[in-house]
From TrEMBL:
Gene behind the chain: hprK
Gene Ontology terms for molecular function: ATP binding; magnesium ion binding; phosphorelay sensor kinase activity; protein serine/threonine kinase activity; protein serine/threonine/tyrosine kinase activity
Record CDD domains: HprK_C
Name the record gives this protein: HPr kinase/phosphorylase
Binding residue positions for Mg(2+): S165, E207
Upper taxonomic lineage: Bacteria, Pseudomonadati, Candidatus Hydrogenedentota, Candidatus Abyssobacteria
Miscellaneous note of the record: Both phosphorylation and phosphorolysis are carried out by the same active site and suggest a common mechanism for both reactions.
Active site, UniProt feature: H143, K164, D182 (proton acceptor), R248
Length: 320
């Protein structure tokens, strides 16, 4: 998770999306943005600074610009001097509006960057919030393979050499899509959602022991890959242990926590003859059913309980 970014970095990463240009305060482009939120400085321009959220990106639209234009030169200068005493990261003016000359002069004097966007205020605010939320969101990396299986982001984990990449390769051959192999970068958005992607250098590549590294997109086509995917299910592959009791009914629910987000997890034992790709496909479909409110295991348990506790139960209830 980044702690801050400079205004120059912000401009570089958003100039196409926000259609912005720098119109003042060029000497202050190394100022830092450390808060993933914005502020509308209308009250500050009116002279009320008790709760001025100065440490955020300041967005000014038609209301703020027209208000400054209606003030006489002396009043505007006095209020702007008070505003620019604070360590403001930058101002962004929307709709391609031109601020009063006094505002530009004060910004240049205080070395506070003033940016101008051609977009409406609503669009600028929403795009900045989304961008900053992504930039400042917690992130980590995990060893595994992330595959989009029937719309479910399945994170395949396990010890080195257990067959994660081989399983993912068969899933790709069956029409599913690779997101990342070996190292998966996970980023949390909001409080509940995790999104995974691969590194920019190795994106869309896989490593198979005995085969080496190859480009999935070039071999299987662009439809076999995607850049990012929400992680919904953890599948851990482990070597078959005959002394271990594996879940055969599916009633017990295991979980795996990443960045304080709990995800459902299933453990699948690996041994010769088991088709792991089909098992993961069924697990993904079953996960989708649960998200739709249909839990097969619980429904079966309720039916069995009803039959066993029914006073007129009969042996025929257990026969086909």
């Amino acid at each position: 998770m980044i702690k801050s970014l400079t205004v120059a970095d912000f401009i570089e990463r958003t100039k196409e999306n926000l259609k912005i240009q720098t119109i003042a305060g060029h000497s202050g482009l190394e100022r830092t943005i450390a808060i993933p939120d914005i502020n509308r400085p209308g009250l500050a321009l009116a002279g009320y600074l008790d709760f001025f959220a100065f440490d955020r990106v300041q967005v000014m639209g038609l209301t703020e610009v027209n208000y400054m234009r209606q003030l006489d030169e002396a009043t505007l200068s006095e209020r702007l001097q008070r505003v620019f005493k604070y360590e403001v990261p930058c101002f962004i003016i929307t709709r391609g509006l031109t601020p009063p000359e006094g505002f530009v002069e004060q910004a240049n004097r205080a070395s506070v960057p003033v940016l101008r966007s051609l977009l409406t205020t609503t669009k600028v605010v929403s795009k900045i919030i989304i961008f900053l939320d992504n930039q400042f969101s917690p992130e980590t990396s995990l060893h595994g393979v992330l595959v989009d299986v029937y719309g479910v982001g399945v994170m395949i984990m396990g010890r080195a050499g257990v067959g994660k990449s081989e399983c993912a390769l068969e899933l790709i051959e069956r029409g599913h899509r690779l997101v990342a192999d070996d190292v998966v970068f996970i980023r949390r958005r909001g409080d509940r959602f995790l999104y995974g992607e691969g590194s920019a250098l190795l994106r869309h590549h896989m490593e198979i022991r005995g085969l080496g590294i190859f480009d999935v997109k070039n071999i299987f086509g662009v439809g076999a890959v995607r850049n990012t995917k929400r992680v919904g299910l953890i599948v851990e592959l482990e070597d078959w242990d005959s002394s271990k009791e594996y879940d055969r009914i599916g009633i017990s629910e295991d979980s795996y926590t990443i960045l304080e987000v709990k995800l459902p997890k299933i453990t699948v034992p690996v041994r010769p003859g088991r088709n792991m790709a089909i098992i993961i496909e069924v697990a993904a479909l079953n996960h989708r059913l649960k998200e739709m409110g249909l839990d097969s295991e619980k429904l079966l348990t309720e039916r069995l309980t009803q039959v066993l506790t029914s006073p007129d139960k009969d042996q025929d209830d257990f026969e086909p």
